[in-house]
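Reopening this one. Same input as before:
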Amino acid sequence: MMLGNTLFRCGGSALLLSSRRRDFFQAKYKLLHNVRTQVSDEYSYGVAVEVEDENGQHGVALSKELMNCACKAMKINLAGLAPHVLPIREQLKVSLTQAAIMLISKWKKMNLPLADMMTVPNGVSPDFKKGIDHFCIHAGGRAVLEAAQKDLCLSDDQIAPSMNTLKDWGNLSSSSLWYELEWVERFGGLRRGDRILQMGFGAGFKCNSSVWVAMRVDPKKQGVPLKK
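Same output, byte for byte:
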């Protein structure tokens, strides 16, 4: 209970957001898309909840099923984000595969001619690397990052901003996304026009993703470590 309380009190970041047109030319990033997912069933709600223990101590209780809920919320969130960031070719590949699965499954179920010769194709996951250049996944723990890396088919270099932030700073709760973005600026080879995906998780269970495009890059920061 105290571990959860301590984690959620650590870390912090400050940034300035603006919707004024005159700030366009001095902004570092432009927000392209934001998708918020709330999985509201009772099972998902119970994996991270603020309660009292048997001694009356108030804190945050985290369930062992947290990972399963996080993966479920992430998949729902990415399904909503995909049409906004993926190229048409990648979207068509997924849509046509899903249509083929439904058609062949129905064909075999109805035992129509040539049904025995048909094989239901495997599902295809969209490749978000076709629409995103850098990934900043909430550094909640190594298991969380490894699951996200597997689901998104990311290389070690692509998950490096999150892994290195976790290694250097630990779990910084929601502020970890901005530490990761700072890592991308310094060591990730960020270039003007690159797209960055930030994805965070929260109780409820929630998953939120934001896609930014880099408007300008500071070459003086590249390669310079962030001081603790």
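So the earlier flakiness isn't reproducible anymore. For the record, The beta strands are 29-38, 48-52, 58-62, 134-137, 195-202, 206-214.
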